[in-house]
Amino acid sequence: xxxxxxxxxxxxxxxxxxxxxxxxxxxxxxxxxxxxxxxxxxxxxxxxxxxxxxxxxxxxxxxxxxxxxxxxxxxxxxxxxxxxxxxxxxxxxxxxxxxxxxxxxxxxxxxxxxxxxxxxxxxxxxxxxxxxxxxxxxxxxxxxxxxxxxxxxxxxxxxxxxxxxxxxxxxxxxxxxxxxxxxxxxxxxxxxxxxxxxxxxxxxxxxxxxxxxxxxxxxxxxxxxxxxxxxxxxxxxxxxxxxxxxxxxxxxxxxxxxxxxxxxx
Length: 265
Fold this sequence. Notes:
By secondary structure, the protein is mostly beta strands. It has three helices and 14 strands.
């Protein structure tokens, strides 16, 4: 979190969820030993089968970040890793994983769940200390967090506006009536873009929500957070006068954020 909250985090530690000491073993699928006849085989040797279709239309590219849930087994049914067992989804760049996993992701749309049979030539290629042979993954594509929203360039007509020039739109309703004060700390998920659609920061990159004081961030954030209740998710358009005001080395112009208020501390 190198821009939005750099000075705030020098004083307030990010809350990190504890990891379970022992991973819960997730049973393998019945076809873990070999793909069924109706599975699709690519020219590379990757085999896949859609377990649940997605509602989205976008497919990730090698340059994209993705947020996924996954579980991996060897063909004898032994689980070797799982985001579900760790208790949280994983976010990474498509080009940063083994070739077969990256290829499989590029076939998927948001919300889809797919089973992949990855040959060793597209996996770890006999690397010491890594799972050997064909690897089987169940993968659910939860999102492509770096992709900007369609209205990133300007707030839509139905966005609400405040006297300061802030514009915002509720994406998901929250619960309760308590709103944070400037003296509170909050825990949030967020992603920020410039109006040309370039993502410059996201809590997804850090694998955890961020925790910081409401009055320790740019003025537009301080104002927007105090409009929210727990569980609410908004999109906020922050004019430069309420952001970095032309400060060197910081994102310029109007900034757009998707913010989910996880908890008021």
